[in-house]
Amino acid sequence: MTITPSRRLQAHHAYGRAVDAFEPVAWRPPTAARFDSRVANDIAPRREPALSDMTDGIPGWLTVVLGGVVAALAGALMGGALHI
User: What pTM does this model have?
Assistant: First the structure.
């Protein structure tokens, strides 16, 4: 199965050379210039937040209320355990 002369002429006009139907296709790997050459973790290091930075936004009354709730739950669990 060969290419017809009219298609060969059309290919010659389109690609600048004569083409055969069974001619292998020339392939080459892509150039490396299209890839980003920076390292993946190329960012400025950030400072880790300290415990005091995290607790600055918590109001003082919340600590007292949460402590009372934890004490009440511990008392209820202890009372239930002693009841058995």
Answer: 0.39
